[in-house]
Design brief:
The protein is an alpha+beta fold. It has 7 helices and 4 strands. Strand 1 and strand 2 form a beta hairpin. The longest helix is centred in the middle third of the chain and has 24 residues.
Length: 161
């Protein structure tokens, strides 16, 4: 525990630029992991990276404004997070394994008119959610569907026969 306090500082002590930056990176990574394991549809079209960046940047900037945190270290940590977000976004575009890790992947919910109930359950979707997407795409019956997929942005894509 002492090593951790050396790296990121202890509560009640002043922390410097490097310690606040390390804290920011740790919170960013932990936040991405937490959001990635939450249901895809819970956050709409935002990726886990976007959500965490928005929450942390908003929190950091408010603390810098109100004086709840040292001004310069807070700004440096916030800028570091924005840069980290940009690097991860570019790296995710380049490497598919990182894109899958940070943004998720699509899930097939139905194929050739047959529901994959296990996939729907894993995705946190009910038959009503799928039927709503089918109606929005102009289909009334599952037999009319060639495939239905939960996309990584939370949309349900329906492809007819």
């Amino acid at each position: 525990m002492e090593v951790l306090h050396e790296l990121i500082g202890a509560q009640g002590q002043g922390i410097g630029v490097v310690q606040m930056s390390l804290r920011a990176v740790l919170i960013f990574v932990l936040g991405v992991l937490i959001v990635r394991f939450a249901a895809t549809r819970a956050f709409g079209k935002w990726s886990a990276l976007d959500i965490i960046l928005a929450v942390i940047v908003g929190s950091n900037l408010s603390r810098a404004i109100t004086g709840g945190a040292p001004f310069l270290p807070t700004l440096v940590a916030t800028i570091l997070l924005v840069l980290l977000h940009g690097l991860l976004a570019r790296a995710s575009a380049r490497w598919s394994w990182l894109s899958t890790l940070t943004k998720g992947s699509s899930v097939i919910l139905a194929k050739d008119g047959v529901l994959d109930e296990a996939a729907m359950k894993r995705s946190g979707l009910g038959e009503g959610d799928l039927r709503m997407a089918m109606r929005a795409s102009g289909y009334n019956d599952i037999s009319e569907i060639s495939s239905a997929s939960l996309e990584r942005n939370g949309d349900i894509t329906i492809i007819g026969r």
